[in-house]
Fold these 2 entries.
Entry 1:
Amino acid sequence: MTLHRISVLLADQQVMQQDPRAQKIVLFGYLAIFAVIMWLMVFGPQRKKAKEQDLMLKALRAGDKIVTTSGILGLVLSIKDKSISIRSADAKLEILKSAVAEVTERGGDSGETKS
């Protein structure tokens, strides 16, 4: 009887031990799932924000009031390929388009009709 019990205990231990290759596959599966979740959480919103910024810069017109990334408030005078001329208080500045943080007020000939 005791020999039978020992063989049952040994059989249970063999069943409980997992294949090391299977453990590695499961680990790599978890890492892949984690990488996909991180990709969606980090790069998804970043791409969306970049698209919104690009659309805002394409819709920028002379007469719009803007805020730059450094906090300067200005009125758009003219737009070039990579830069914008703005007037802020008594100063006329030329800034890069990428320095525009937001358009606070649409002005000039924006194509809107007022009712």
Entry 2:
Amino acid sequence: MRFLLTALLCAGCLFMAGARADSDAGEFFNGKDLKGWEGLEKYWSVKDGAIVGYTPEDPKFNTFLCSKAKYKDFELSFKVRLKDGIGNSGVQIRSKVFDEKKFRVSGPQADIGKGFWGSLYGEGFGGMMQASKPDTIKKAVKETDFNDYSIRCVGKHVTIKINGETMVDGEFVKKGQVLPDEGIIALQLHAGYKSMEVTFKDIKFKDLSK
């Protein structure tokens, strides 16, 4: 009887943990529309449960789809593809909007783009924080297909993985590039391309600050 009760309690704990993770993901992105997010609407849409960023022309500035909520510690995973391997994107973490008309953002960015995949870059935040190794990028990344991408941010520690390969794993406390305590999460469309398209799908999010 005691064994059965313990098993039921453990099952209940697992159910609640799973429910929390699902709830966090739904609150972060509901898979249907961009509720809870803001950006230049002409560039962003939801298609088949995925967030798609598309520039039919060069916007002449980097622009972002930004979460309205701020986050501290979290785990974020998704599949991402740059169509035909063209363009440059990334995921801003603990960042801030400094230009509300163009939705320009500053802060740390988990990079997505040729030669920079998986690097942690300071967008308007002091430049490169930690670059991925070229050999690791070549080994891990499928440049024209979807890639499994994960970001874990706890305290001042950031871990970035692509297709299971660790790209960045470290503490970020360097003067001028200290990881902020909290901020928005934002998805990037980069200037300098005649046209580009990035797709984020199978998005999973867990708030570790709760």
